[in-house]
Design goal:
With 333 residues, the chain is of the alpha/beta class. The chain is 44% helix and 11% strand. The protein has an eight-stranded mixed sheet, with helices on both faces. Helix 4 packs parallel to helix 5, helix 5 packs parallel to helix 7 and helix 7 crosses helix 10. Pfam families: adh_short. It comes from Orbilia javanica. InterPro entries: NAD(P)-bd_dom_sf, SDR_fam.
């Protein structure tokens, strides 16, 4: 019953406010000068992350463009600098693979060796619609490993510098952004099915062709919202704010594993810039303060809803439980 309700909720949101949102209320023109500030955006060599990195750089921030491919990273940075030749900001590539936890600490150490502040981490990178037989280097379902486990490990390595930055940066300006999806509405009851995760990706509906991978994706994206709730509870006294935006339904490379979305997505998908604006709102909007800590954000920059059973689970300690569960399952990385 919870599953059917979740799928219904996701479809309803697709055809209403999250699928066809009003005009953005927070755009490039609303962003102040960001000179001296430092941001990390994962998956920023293309798509939504690239759009966000461009805006931050255009406002004179230093942006770490993170990704797996050095070639793609170098190309992306060249395009950013070419588009904004008058920027006094900086752009640097940071290479790691979220599906291989052994690559994360060396990359984080490199950033930490070069910076004394970090104003926001935008966990934007992710995969969608891949076969459930695909695994991360540590054996997780690739979607869960890339969308959840990798970002958690990265966040752990960068937590201290964010906390230190919050001590001198403007109040409520230091952010952690766990990028979610409209698919989060189709997650299992309560948002997280621990038994399913413990089996490292064996789906509960594997007998239905094509269904299992999308349910796994939904759970991974809902996990991002639960992570934001857990972070907000665990680190509520640090001054760092966590949010979980659904950037919107967008024409990006994320669709590369789905023939249906590639073939018919033009009917309801939007240009990636709009997703960049949703993430921009999550990263910089002054509307977000401690009262919004742990919030879900919907396109193109609004505080939005989440299924009542998922909110109830988080309010009863489910967010903190999941955060601690991830800590236990990523020891040594």
């Amino acid at each position: 019953m919870a599953l059917l309700y979740g799928v219904y909720t996701a479809l309803w949101q697709l055809v209403t406010s999250e699928g066809f949102p009003p005009k953005p209320g927070f755009e490039e023109k609303d962003v102040p000068d960001l000179s001296g500030k430092v941001y990390l955006v994962t998956g920023a060599t293309g798509g939504i992350g690239f759009e966000l990195a461009k805006i931050l750089y255009s406002k004179n921030a230093k942006v770490y463009v993170a990704g797996r491919s050095e070639e793609n990273g170098t190309t992306a940075i060249a395009k950013i600098k070419e588009e904004y030749p008058k920027s006094d900001g900086g752009a640097e590539f940071l290479q790691f693979d979220l599906s291989d936890l052994t690559t994360i600490k060396p990359a984080a150490d490199k950033l930490l060796s070069q910076e004394r502040r970090l104003d926001a981490v935008v966990h934007n990178a992710g995969v969608m619609g891949v076969p459930t037989s695909w695994r991360s280097a540590q054996g997780w379902d690739l979607q869960f490993g890339t969308n959840v486990v990798g970002p958690f490990v990265l966040q752990r390595h960068l937590q201290n510098i964010l906390v230190e930055t919050a001590k001198f940066a403007p109040k409520d300006s230091v952010r952690v952004v766990f990028v979610s999806s409209i698919g989060a509405h189709a997650a299992p009851a309560g948002g997280i099915d621990y038994e399913n995760i413990e089996q490292k990706g064996i789906p509960p509906l594997s007998n239905i062709p094509g269904m299992d991978t999308w349910l796994k994706y939904a759970q991974s994206k809902c996990a991002n919202t639960v992570m934001a709730k857990g972070y907000a509870e665990k680190y509520k006294d640090t001054g760092v704010i966590a949010v979980a935006p659904n950037p919107g339904n967008l024409r990006t490379d994320l669709m590369r594993h789905s023939f249906i979305l590639r073939a018919f997505g033009w009917t309801f998908l939007h240009p990636p810039r709009y997703g960049g604006l949703t993430e921009l709102y999550a990263t910089l909007s002054p509307e977000i303060d401690q009262s919004k800590n742990g919030s879900v954000i919907i396109p193109w920059g609004r505080i939005g809803p989440m299924r009542s059973d998922i909110i109830e689970n988080c309010n009863n300690g489910g967010g903190l439980k999941f955060w601690n569960w991830l800590e236990e399952h990523t020891e040594g990385f």
